[in-house]
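Sequence of ATPase AAA-type core domain-containing protein (marine sediment metagenome).
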Amino acid sequence: MKIIILRGLPGTGKTIIAKILKDIFFNSEIISVDKLKIQALKSKYTFLKANKIGFEISMQELSKLSKTKEVIILEEIICNKKFYHELNNFIKDTECESYWFRITRKLNHLLAVESKRKRKIKNTKKDFLNLKKEIEMIEIKSEHKIKNDDLEKTIKEILDILI
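Predicted 3D structure, token representation.
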């Protein structure tokens, strides 16, 4: 089994990349931690509790899917050290292949994407810079940093590493 982890700031293209990879790889599934956190927020949990629930459900899904899927694509910002360690321990315990990708884009592009999102609270330049610092605090030696300026090139670059 392979686990492909896509992490990065909101608006970097993690979700669309995950969907394209799912279409390419037979017997694959996506775990979108953000979607799980948003579902918890809709259940009136606080932001911190929703994050915790999202991480817990993600790990449960990962464990369940690892028994039936050949490729699992997990997409998340991943700036929470506890979640990172749980994910890393799962990878070590199951001895599965893991591929870490940090997807990046220029700040002005992220702000443009954010301005078009349909949500009440939008990330500001300061939010993005703070999140970037949090992401960079988790140093992953085997992580591939991919600049997503062109989706086609990004997919090709990822596939060149995976295949």
